[in-house]
Amino acid sequence: MASSQTQIKKDDKAAAASKAEAQAPEQKPAALEEDDEFEDFPVDDWEQEDTEAASGGAAQHLWEESWDDDDTSDDFSAQLKEELKKVDAAKKR
Amino acid sequence: MEFTTPFFREFAESYSERSGPRLAKTLRPDVSTEKLRKICKSHNAHDIKSSLKRGLQLNAALADGLDQQEVQGWVDVYVAYWNGAKAILAARESSGDDGQSSELVWTKVYAAWTELVNVLIRGYQNCGFEAWTLPCLYVVCKHLRVFASNADDERNNNTSIDDSAAATFQDDFDPETNKRQKLEDCARVLSRVFMLCQSDRAPLEESRKWGIYYIANLLLKTYFKLNSASLSKNILNSLRAGGRDMPSFKAFPRSQQVTFKYHQGVLAFLEENYVDAETYLTEAWNDCYKNSVRNKELILTYLIPCRLVTNHTLPTEKLLAQYPRLQKLFLPLCRCIKRGELHKFDLALQEGEDEFVKRRIYLTLERGRDIALRNLLRKVFIARGFEEAKDGEKPVRRSRVPVAEFAAAISLGSQERIDNDEVECLLANMIYKNHMKGYISRQHGIVVLSKSGAFPGTGV
Amino acid sequence: MSTWPATSAPSGVPPSTGYAASYSAPAYTSVHVRQSFGQSFSTPQPSYPAYGPTQTSSPSAANIPPTVNPAPPTAQEQSKTKIDWPDSVRRYVQRAFIPANLDASVTRSDMETKLKETITQANENGVMYTLDWDTMPLPQHMIREERARSLLPLHSRPQVQPPANAPGTTKKRKSWDQADAAASASASPTPPWRTGPTRLEDRVSFPSDRHQAGAEQPSKNTSKLNRADKRQKRNEGEYTTLREDTPPPAEGPVIGTCQDLEKRYLRLTAAPKPSQVRPPHILRQTLELLKKRWKKDQNYSYICDQFKSMRQDLTVQRIRDDFTVEVYEIHARIALEKGDLGEYNQCQTQLKALYKLGLKGKPNEFKAYRILYFIHTANRTELSNALADLTPAEKKDKAIKHALDVRSALALGNYHRFFQLYNETPNMGAYLMDMFVLRERLAALCNICKAYKQDVQLRFVTEELYFESDIEAAQFILDNGGQDLLEDRNGTIIFLTAKAGSRFDARRATAFSRVDIKGQI
């Protein structure tokens, strides 16, 4: 089921891509589409263990901080110095 | 199901079991054309009523004491269903060849099906239909939406037929809505059904109030399609007002809870009430059926921009990797934000603009620029290093940063230079929004940053 | 002084005339701009119901020579003797007989009859000298259309009057539709909004050095911001979007036969009689008349009422063509100028649909207004929808791009950019931006007070918030409770930001909380 679904999605995508190519870039951006609608669930109700939270969703690492300190800041310093020079040069001109 | 002996047995058994879902199956319109044809042909307009009545009465005993009034109610329901079936059959047959037809066949289906809803409503109001039969109402209402959309599409594709805008003599309404005429009508019908459920005063265990979230969800989906946030709000308000006499929300099936929370969350999101939106969407996410990938994807589509604003957190790459569409949508932006690449952020936002705008998340994602800027300024601050350490004391970061240095950082990667007044304006904003602690000294052209937490919440 | 006299009067006040309201040092030259705007609001306008069905005499009757219903023979006699043909009419007649314009299917005598009919009617209705004959459909086209119209099933009823304007004629009216503002500003008659410069910089009489000049030229106008408030209040009391009961649909469109140029607006509850509806060629003349009257009298409630009845006549006849667009555009612009947002919004909503039909007009101009409008009303959902409706090409249009930039500047808190854009507003967008510039100034001021220590020069506030002068900036600070925040330091006025702290936050919050406009769809 899951695999056939992804297959369909892929096909959709391919079809959508080729359609987009065929049409001029002037195409109107559409309103919210049919497929944006929240789908009916295949079952009416389910047990706690079948919820996203219980099935590993919560245990998973979903969210992270918005900054990144791994970046070597030496690199950044060099870039910044370079940019400052450019700005200075532009000012003098 | 054609109205012959098996049908009457099925009806009676469902009744004696008091099985709503089983009974509801007898009212489904989404059956094979072959089956529809059989239903239509099993009777004609003259004998349908009497033979239904006879059949139901014969099985009344089996149906656990079905009374006269109820029999009459169900007879009317199935007559209306039979009329609906005929209209659907006609629609399917006429659009079979080329998909086009000269007549507005779906408009007829919609009319017939609306009548079925009305007859059902009367059944509850006048003929003593019990709350366990609510699934019948669900099935019928669910398909009413489908037929309304079909009717609108058909009419819109057939421009020669409709020109009703002028018929009202007024021009102070939105002509756009005319395109969604039947769907609007459907919303009105559904809100009557909503009232039918909400106003039931029977004890909770046998109350139609149990139908309220299913119908509310149908209404919300309809209003979303009609692009009407205000009408959606009315539903939420109405639910809130009736809250005291309602069964507990948690007692409803999870499918209804999650669907409702999703819409509630998106509504809050559209109003830029991100705190509530995050709460509702998170609840929807946690309770969502684990195999409903598409719905999980939809929840995240709004939850991700929402969290960016509320607590400046980003989805992990691992999370995005499970949803290729979302990965494509959000990953470039998230990377730029993390690295403080302001110019690239602008490009990525532009790149995805059409898609973002279409999903109504553009305005929210745009606010990620503040976070990207914060991270960039933070990097400048870190790159400047520490004051010369005094003996034995903890090293202190250099906290006086020339505006020009921030200006240079902001123009990194971009060909455009912005003047220092605008840079100051951006810095003032960072300070105003508490992304940065300190002040600008215009006289000296510097920013004096706080020595204790210049960038609150980021460990620096 | 009328609202768009700028061709003759020296118009001179840039965006923010407001803040010197109470300040009138004799050393300064006073500058008047958009003054009538404020004035017309200080005197209460009769609202539309004054024209309602219960009244028997039209309030406008006093000003207008009674329009006599046509009595063709006599009128023609008169015209023969009296008429001194204006050049524009001569040109029109000439144009009709240019070989390139002739139509083999229309005989010369048919053309002459039609010409006579058209010109006579214009004369009777008193618009012969004001009608834009250069864009008037030629008689052969009117005749062709009449024929075409009679073939359509919906239009099969006998035609009393030829339609002067139907889609088929658009090609011949290119000059009107495609003329840009500058070109048509020199033509006569001129649509009023095109007469005056609408760019703020054009309205500044001292564009070379804003700051220097600004310091010497405070305005004596009543505060524009106050005016905006009044506009808004007026709207709130006046307009509701509630639809009355929908009357039963008519069988087909009405074909009007009414020959009166003026007609009061009445809300219909049943199909109107053809004798009460004006056909397109009469409506064209009506429009000319209204343009003239608007320029002359500036009586907004009259104009608004008349435009509503024109719109109604178009609606019941199901006329949706370039002329329809023009009527809505003009009404929208006038409403915009008068700050009647309810009416403006109705027009804008209809225009949106009309543009979708591919009709000519100024869709980009109005799409830009639409965005500014939703910024003003802080309608996030509609703003999102408006963005979703734009094509890539539209996003590059000057006016739309401006509106989008305004939006994004505000979203990012970039007041520096916002006030630059305020100064560069195309078309009539400044009327909309005027409505939210106060709150944005307060927001920016809050920002500055929190971010800058210990103080800044007042001049900095003047420049960043685009005040006309230091005095205006100072007045703004004083008006908002900052009496003790200005200090003279050796001839330089200093604004004490650190001392101000969060002084302006409450006013900012108030300013942002009042954006609810009735009449919003």
Automatic annotation (TrEMBL), chain A:
Principal localization reads: nucleus
Q: Report the subcellular localization.
A: Nucleus
Question: SMART domains from the xrefs?
Answer: DSS1_SEM1 (SM01385)
**Which GO biological process entries does UniProt record here?**
double-strand break repair via homologous recombination; mRNA export from nucleus; proteasome assembly
Could you list this entry's UniProt keywords, alphabetically sorted: Nucleus, Proteasome
For this record, an example GO cellular component is: proteasome regulatory particle, lid subcomplex
Pfam families listed in its UniProt record: DSS1_SEM1
InterPro entries xrefs:
DSS1_SEM1
The name this protein carries in UniProt is 26S proteasome complex subunit SEM1
From TrEMBL, chain B:
- Origin species: Staphylotrichum tortipilum
- The regions listed as transmembrane in this protein's record are none
User: Where in the numbering of this chain does the PCI domain appear?
Assistant: 258-454
- Which GO molecular function annotations are given, in alphabetical order? double-stranded DNA binding; RNA binding
Family, per entry:
Belongs to the CSN12 family.
The name of this protein is Protein CSN12 homolog
- Pfam families per UniProt: PCI (PF01399)
Highest taxon of source: Eukaryota
TrEMBL record, chain C:
Matching Gene3D superfamilies = 1.25.40.990
Pfam hit, one: SAC3_GANP
Composition-biased stretches, type Polar residues, lie in 1-10, 36-45
Q: What spans are recorded as compositionally biased (Basic and acidic residues)? A: 199-213, 226-246
Q: Which InterPro entries match?
A: SAC3/GANP/THP3 (IPR045107), SAC3/GANP/THP3_conserved (IPR005062)
Compositionally biased, Low complexity: which spans?
179-188
**Region (Disordered), start-end ranges:** 1-20, 36-86, 154-254
Cellular component terms, GO, for this chain's entry? nucleus
The record places domain SAC3/GANP/THP3 conserved at 267-477
Identify this protein by name.
Answer: SAC3/GANP/Nin1/mts3/eIF-3 p25 family-domain-containing protein
Species, as recorded: Staphylotrichum tortipilum
